[in-house]
Amino acid sequence: MVNIDFSKDIIEATRYFIKVVELGSYSSVKKFYNVELNTIKSKIDTLETYLGVKLIQNIHNRITPTKNGVKYYHSCSKIYKDLESTIDSVKNNGFKERRAIRVLGSPLSIKVTIDRVIPKLNQDSTSNLRFTLDNYALNHFDGKEYQFETYDVILINTRHLEHIDLNDWIVCKSINSTKLPALIYGDKNLIKDMHNEPQKVLETDLVFNRYDWDHNIFNFTHKEDEEDNHQNKMYRFNPNKVKYLVSNEVQKANIIKKEKVIGFMPKFYYDSLMKDSEYIDFVRGFEVDFHIESFLVLVYKYSKHKDKLVEIFRTELIELLGNDLDDPSKN
């Protein structure tokens, strides 16, 4: 067994490894840190020996991380950069306390955090807060990529709970799996002749979230008679009209605002992402049953901000999700 000084060799090797992943070559790291190539290679070899896994590989003369290397990079890079930032801050500003709050969630939940939660935290705080906001893809979530205990708040689907030790977390808010009414949105000029015209909806290009596609959310209802559901007719979006397939609702909203396409989402998504756009409206007469997966808002029980985080997240989410209990066609 090789005797390796963890504090010196492993931390230094991790620093080189992170930069190799980011720059893609040993020579670039050599220039960045002004060290010899053999030093970089030797340190990374030492790191791989210590961990017992292969971290990097040479593909077409480009150094890339292995699958395990990607996991190690995601586990270490943010922590290391936060350490560098802290050292730099102390150097430039001295020991002025700057309390950091770290949040992990889907792109939409991060958008909600930015719009609704952070302003309240800043308003209630007597000191200067720093926020670190990281998002993950719902369909590509691997718990090994994240060190959850470094976060103050995690907004996570319940199907991913296997990655988390709930003994360390406070359940701030839980949302059960349900179906919510969603409306079809688009540019006002684009949709002006689509109201109560299902054939025109079927002929128009679409933007879909991959989540919509994976959950087979293709059906929509033409509500011909609001008083008599028996008069409603069911239609199915044409998959061949899906012009954009995106990875999250934030991207979907941006496409709806910029391109000649239509897309559907629940009202509370619209309120968070497109309500401020004067050019976007919903197509009258149609509704989509939108599947919402169950999710939890978790607050780390050892966070020094836990009481305030629980209070504000719970209040803001109740207010936001409560809006969707109303008729989504009403503003």
From TrEMBL:
Sorted UniProt keywords: DNA-binding, Transcription, Transcription regulation
Single Gene Ontology MF annotation: transcription cis-regulatory region binding
A GO biological-process term: regulation of DNA-templated transcription
Family per record: Belongs to the LysR transcriptional regulatory family.
Record-given protein name: LysR family transcriptional regulator
Species assigned in the record: Allofrancisella guangzhouensis
